[in-house]
TrEMBL record:
<keyword id="KW-0812">Transmembrane</keyword>
<keyword id="KW-1133">Transmembrane helix</keyword>
<dbReference type="InterPro" id="IPR051393">
    <property type="entry name" value="ABC_transporter_permease"/>
</dbReference>
<keyword id="KW-0472">Membrane</keyword>
<keyword id="KW-0813">Transport</keyword>
<keyword id="KW-1003">Cell membrane</keyword>
<dbReference type="InterPro" id="IPR035906">
    <property type="entry name" value="MetI-like_sf"/>
</dbReference>
<dbReference type="GO" id="GO:0005886">
    <property type="term" value="C:plasma membrane"/>
</dbReference>
<feature type="transmembrane region" description="Helical">
    <location>
        <begin position="107"/>
        <end position="127"/>
    </location>
</feature>
<feature type="transmembrane region" description="Helical">
    <location>
        <begin position="69"/>
        <end position="95"/>
    </location>
</feature>
<feature type="transmembrane region" description="Helical">
    <location>
        <begin position="213"/>
        <end position="237"/>
    </location>
</feature>
<dbReference type="Pfam" id="PF00528">
    <property type="entry name" value="BPD_transp_1"/>
</dbReference>
<dbReference type="InterPro" id="IPR000515">
    <property type="entry name" value="MetI-like"/>
</dbReference>
<dbReference type="GO" id="GO:0055085">
    <property type="term" value="P:transmembrane transport"/>
</dbReference>
<protein>
    <submittedName>
        <fullName>Sugar ABC transporter permease</fullName>
    </submittedName>
</protein>
<feature type="transmembrane region" description="Helical">
    <location>
        <begin position="257"/>
        <end position="279"/>
    </location>
</feature>
<comment type="similarity">
    <text>Belongs to the binding-protein-dependent transport system permease family.</text>
</comment>
Length: 289
């Protein structure tokens, strides 16, 4: 009797989660395997021809694709590092201050996150326009003749800053929430011991918010690998492919050149890079001290 009741409970549980499992398999798992399959074919409108790993060979023989990998990794390293360090600095400086003050700071940094990335990119496009943008105008007033979006030396730092400034608010919110949750007894004990603010941050706060740090790193790695809107609206991959990323390269091959096999191969490589960058962070988060 107990066995029948247990089986009935298990079946009812599986029935409740079945819609989510089906959606997960159809919209997440299936596209991954279909992308891997398509990457092994040469595809046109009428047929598919199996060519094995030839698409991957073409990719790594293309200097533009190699450049897109380098640009993507540069974006990942600098944007993730800036986001974590700046968000940690701001949160550790204000989390224990007056609640109204903290709310104002959180709101100010989170406003760009709530605005569509398309809108933010358009605003930055107007500001950086070399003909009549505010930032180039101020640069000319300081006797600096710089085309921020047309100079290969400036375009990557500009995109890094725009992406960082737009998304850092979310990390600040997460860090503040995590730091507020640190037991007050630890701070009281540190105060009794005469620990300085710096020691409290490095010895108490940072170790206690480690799971939040790992989460922010993983989420930002995934987000930066998919960076597209900023590139499309600010530079279009230029100048001279200096700002082309893997996602933008994938988009061009899939929707401009109709090279679906090549685009699928880029997607598979991006998936592998995401795993390689994220798995160590996940292992660190799941590791028991």
């Amino acid at each position: 009797m107990k066995l029948k009741d247990t089986m009935r409970e298990n079946i009812s549980g599986y029935i409740f989660i079945a819609p989510q499992i089906i959606l997960f398999l159809v919209f997440l798992v299936y596209p991954i395997f279909e992308g891997i399959r398509l990457s092994l074919f040469k595809i046109n409108y009428q047929s598919e021809t199996f060519i094995g790993l030839a698409n991957y060979g073409k990719l790594f023989a293309d200097p533009i694709f190699v450049k897109s990998i380098i640009n993507t990794l540069i974006f990942v390293v600098f944007i993730v590092a800036l986001t974590v360090l700046f968000a940690m600095f701001v949160a550790s400086a204000i989390f224990d201050k007056n609640a109204k003050y903290v709310s104002i700071i959180r709101g100010a940094y989170y406003i760009p996150v709530m605005v569509s990335m398309v809108v933010m990119s358009m605003i930055w496009s107007f500001l950086l326009n070399p003909a009549n943008g505010l930032i180039p105008f101020l640069a000319r007033k300081m006797e600096m003749s710089v085309n921020f979006l047309g100079d290969t030396n400036w375009v990557l730092p500009v995109i890094i800053f725009v992406t960082f400034a737009t998304n850092v608010g979310q990390a600040i919110i997460l860090y503040i929430a995590s730091m507020i949750g640190v037991p007050k007894e630890l701070f009281e004990a540190a105060e009794v011991d005469g620990a300085s603010r710096i020691k409290v941050i490095f010895k108490i706060i940072l170790p206690m918010v480690k799971p939040t740090t790992i989460y922010i790193i993983i989420m930002n790695i995934i987000a930066v690998l998919k960076i597209f809107v900023v590139i499309q609206l600010l530079t279009g991959g230029g100048p001279n492919n200096a700002s082309t990323t893997m996602m933008y390269y994938l988009y061009n091959n899939a929707f401009k050149y109709n090279q679906l096999g090549i685009a699928s191969a880029v997607g598979v490589i991006m998936f592998i890079i995401t795993l390689l960058l994220s798995v160590p962070q996940l292992r660190a988060m799941l590791k028991k001290d």
